[in-house]
Amino acid sequence: MLNQTFNTVAPFHPTRKEYYTHKAMELDLPLPMFSDDANSYGKTILSNLVESELQYTFQKPNL
Known about the structure:
Distance between the termini: 33 Å
Mean pLDDT: 83
């Protein structure tokens, strides 16, 4: 048994604008408006350890 913590997040990291625009188009909703002035700050959590150590393959690796 492995004594390790794995991040099980999807391997893609779209911006909020990319994600919500894609979902609005997918659901035939009006496209959201975003300010290009606002920068996004934060952490990016990677899933490469779970993929390499457990040979895990995500069902939906992209939007």
